[in-house]
Amino acid sequence: xxxxxxITGSDLTREWKAFDARAEALPAxxxxxxxxxxxxxxxxxxxxxxxLTPVLDGALGLLEESAADGLRIDDVLGGDIDGFAAALAxxxxxxxxxxxxxxxxxxxxxxxxxxxxx
Length: 118
What we know:
Number of helices: 7
Radius of gyration: 18 Å
Order of helices and strands: HHHHHHH
CATH architecture: Orthogonal Bundle
Structural class: mainly alpha
CATH topology: c-terminal domain of poly(a) binding protein
CATH superfamily: c-terminal domain of poly(a) binding protein
Strand content: under 5%
């Protein structure tokens, strides 16, 4: 990845198009699960979403292999897409971007209060 791709995000666009092409080859129930899974993983991403790219690649690979093996989508995801997404993002109850921002805001406020002597 070169500087221009980093600035413009063209590398991410290219990767997302590749994900979309791979997902289109999945059966309909798997495609629906893929869309739902990507939506539920987005809050765990950083500003650009670069940290989720390897996670999404692995998840899509799992869906592709499971579809090829003829497994039902509920057998693969366990019927709990929220829990599956949280487990993929790190661990159960992994902080999303709101929690990260809340912690950062609290640290900044505490630092300011310490500077002013209150």
